[in-house]
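We read letters as residues; the integers encode the fold. Take this protein.
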Amino acid sequence: MFVSVGGDWRDRFEYAWQTPDPEPDEGPGLTWRETGANYWSGSWGSQPRGTVMLETSGLWVAYVRLEDPPGPSPITTVGRFDSVEAAQVATDEVWAAR
């Protein structure tokens, strides 16, 4: 016997592709989009190059992918920051200095 409890567990799940940020944050570095409540993605052209996400410690950790070699891409940790804006600026600076 199957008993429906009314609703679906997926109703409360937020998919990043369902609610993309309509206005990307474009500046001299990467183009940043908020793809989730605690996740930002930075791109150059159409390629994802930077990631900023919130850790459980409350700090924002930033990563950058510098190139497209054959095989696995080297991903560099930029650092941990108090705000998402500081993490994005630092990631942009690392990207610009490549």
Notes: The two ends are 61 Å apart (CA to CA).
